[in-house]
Request: fold
Amino acid sequence: MTKIFTDDDLQKCCELFIGVFNGSPWNDKWTSETAHTYLQELIDSKRFLGYTLWDNDLLIGAVFCHMKNHYRGDEIFIDEMYIAPDYQRKGHGTELMNEVEKFAKDNSFISITLLTGKGKPAFDFYGKFGCKYLEHLAFMYKRIV
Ligand SMILES: CC(C)(COP(=O)(O)OP(=O)(O)OC[C@H]1O[C@@H](n2cnc3c(N)ncnc32)[C@H](O)[C@@H]1OP(=O)(O)O)[C@@H](O)C(=O)NCCC(=O)NCCS
Reply:
């Protein structure tokens, strides 16, 4: 069952976030503290939108987004999206994205945007959902430390 995110979900969202992204293929190094700080910052975003997905009282997925203005209208940027490993590839990710898309359509948003790793499984997932890879755009980065 999909629910709108509430602050009471934060602890469970942190635990699941660590379980997913510290595992393959991301192999991140999140700690409880860094994950909590990171997700809290997303939630504090002025125009945050989040949904959680539940199997009874077990959290099995979450999506964290924020709304952005554009001259053509508002868009939704997906900041984080994750499904519990045991529940992946069973349609749950699509269920969460459909919820975001429903919100976008119901509120006359113009688009959904996101960043993901080329060649990572999520790339195919977003492609199947209908997201297009824009070859004329480049994500640029300068390492400081
Ligand atoms: C990526 C993720 C959100 C997809 O959610 P999901 O519930 O597993 O995906 P769904 O079952 O809804 O998949 C729908 C379609 O996406 C594609 N897809 C999903 N997972 C895939 C994978 N591991 N490899 C290739 N294609 C995949 C498939 O086309 C799939 O349809 P099919 O199963 O009929 O072939 C989920 O697997 C996940 O949390 N992964 C780890 C975290 C992550 O990568 N998050 C995104 C970071 S940007």
Observations:
- The two ends are 42 Å apart (CA to CA).
- The CA atoms of residues 118 and 124 lie 9 Å apart.
- The chain has a mean pLDDT of 97.
- The beta strands are 2-4, 48-55, 58-70, 73-83, 111-114.
